[in-house]
Amino acid sequence: EVQLVESGGGLVQPGGSLKLSCAASGFTFSGSAMHWVRQASGKGLEWVGRITSKAESYVTGYGASVNGRFTISRDDSKNTAYLQMNSLKTEDTAVYYCARRQTGGGLEVRGQGTTVTVSS
Amino acid sequence: DIVMTQSPLSLPVTPGEPASISCRSSQSLLHTNGFHYLDWYLQKPGQSPQLLFYLGSNRASGVPDRFTVSGSGTDFTLKISRVEADDVGVYYCMQALQTPQTFGQGTKVEIK
Q: Band of the pLDDT at A104, cuts 50, 70, 90?
């Protein structure tokens, strides 16, 4: 069974940093692109970014609102993806989900997400 | 960036009746490989989003056949032939053709 467990959320001050983790199991992690999606309270889904697999050269891409501040990485030996968030703003407050891109297409979200609150 | 526009944003439905959600993109989602890079998701209340359709018209595992999709280019439609109580939630379309990938605003389906 596919499992994706997000962790690392918490309360951080504006301008601060936080690193989220996504521990994966139940599928070939090294062969899958991994994405991050977020959702502010009462709002819609927002695509944050993704990292492709080694076979696709670990290419990263980001949403406009986080580009230059957030960095996605992965450790295939640990079956874990990461989201490094710097220069955090109050508008980054949200539940953050990780997702894997399924073979053939579409994102699979399995976890309940991790909550990030940016507030002074 | 590709802008995704859904309508309506709110859709009250009667159980047993059909429902339809429109999704329009600011650019064609047709890839050179012939697939439309358009996915549909449903987020049920209190849950994480779940995949309904991918690459335009491919039904995800476990999705009932009362859900269908149609469309091409920039205009797409998700239809529910007979709405059931379990279908309530917010439906999102998302384009996966270009980075950044972008979601529509979401359509909230609720029972009348």
A: confident
- B70 touches B59 (CB < 8 A): no
Distance between CA B59 and CA B51 in Å, rounded? 9
Interface of B with A (CB under 8 A): 1, 35, 37, 39, 41, 43, 48-51, 53-55, 58, 60, 90, 92, 94, 96, 99-106
Q: Do A47 and B51 touch (CB under 8 A)?
A: no
At A37-74, the pLDDT tens digits run 999 999 999 999 999 999 999 999 999 999 999 999 99
A43 close to B104: Cβ distance less than 8 angstroms: no
E strands, B8-84, where? 10-13, 19-25, 38-43, 50-54, 58-59, 67-72, 75-80
Residue B82: DSSP 8-state: S
Q: At A115, which amino acid appears? A: T
Query: Per residue in B81-95, pLDDT tens?
Result: 999 999 999 999 999
Cβ A107–B41 below 8 Å, yes or no? yes
